[in-house]
Amino acid sequence: MDSTSSILIASNSAADAELVRNLLLKTCSRMTLSVQPEHHVSDFDTHLPDVLVLAFSDLEETRAYYQGLCRSSQVAASHRYRTVLLCRKEDLKAAYDLCRQEEFDDYVLFWPMSFDATRLSISVLLAVRAVQAFRQSQVKSPVRPLVKPAIKSASAPELKIDPSLAHMKLKLEPPARSTIMLIDDEIFQHNLVRFLLTGLNCDFIFAFSGTEAIAKLQYVRPSLILMDVLMPGMSGLDLTRHLKSTPVGMDIPIVMVTGNSDKDVVEKSLQAGASDFLVKPFSQDMFLRKLQRFLR
């Protein structure tokens, strides 16, 4: 593993965090323990880990820690890192579902202590490689001119363009497709939006929670975000405020989707940074008209 790679081990138990550190000594030399709740966010912002190992024995405590980190950190949304969730045997199915929904990147059975210790090491190693591969892919190549400069030649005839064709423009490439991200905890809304926008020249990204959305926004930049107001954990208003305070989300238009038409809800949505709002239920025509303001 690259000696510059770093791992942050977050836990509510100093003993568990130290155990994880000892198991990973052969995998990585740069490790930091974060076991004090009041320092969880500052530990992450200071060390900017490549891999965040979540060593909380209770799955709900893991989610509470991560939601708090995503809500309070100034860099978590823009920093590229991977998460490895440690879990109990009875939480395996829930951990699988959270990773399948991309709220976390990977999980390892850690409690009881009859687990395969090498599984943890290889999971962290693969996470580091994934981060390194992504960063290498983002390295910009030297900019090359799209058209070679013309060389003036005495023997070359002067190119004349018919004035009657001056209004015509060459279409060099098809227009880029727009990407819409929907953040809603209900699968029905995901399917409904996909149905309403059938035929629209766009791609879709779906997230079931604020933490899942923040994780996905590390790797994609949607043209528009549709945000449910009421979600468990981090609400749509809290997530909007967070995204608008970070470089990743400050320029992405957000349309709030709510079943509450109260003036207070609308005002809070706009104050949080939303560009517009939709009140459910809405027709397909109204939905399309609203979105056309923000899509290419």
From TrEMBL:
InterPro entries: Bact_response_regulator, CheY-like_superfamily, Sig_transdc_resp-reg_receiver. Residues 179-295 form the Response regulatory domain. The modification 4-aspartylphosphate is found at residue 228. It comes from the Bacteria. Keywords: Phosphoprotein. This is Response regulator. The keyword DNA repair does not apply. It holds the Pfam family Response_reg. GO terms for biological process: phosphorelay signal transduction system.
